[in-house]
Amino acid sequence: MDATAPNRPPGCIAEWENGVRIWARTWCEIIEDCEDRLHFYRDRLNHDPATEDAVEYLRRVHGSVLPEAVTV
To answer: Of 15, 18, 20, 47, which shows the fewest CB atoms inside 10 Å?
Structure first.
């Protein structure tokens, strides 16, 4: 009920004169925001964090100390 008070923006449950606000969000909203950020950074970096890329990096950078199972 506090998140829909008519004198505050939607989701804002408390607000003080010094500009501090407390927001209530659903898990769905939080997950959607995280997915949006993931897609934004993936698009901007043109990077797919696939397992093959990670293993290739490990072989290239740390190959001398990796177990044989990873370097094969």
So the answer is: 18
Split into its structural domains, the chain has a count of 1
DSSP state of 3: G
50 contacts 28 by C-beta, under 8 angstroms: no
Could you tell me the residue range of the domain that residue 41 belongs to? Answer: 2-71
Q: Amino acid identity, residue 7?
A: N
Tens digit of each residue's pLDDT (9 = 90 or more) over 50-70: 778 788 888 889 888 888 776
Task: Name the residue with tokens 């190959």.
Answer: 63
The tokens of 67 are what?
Answer: 């177990």
Strand partners of residue 12: 23
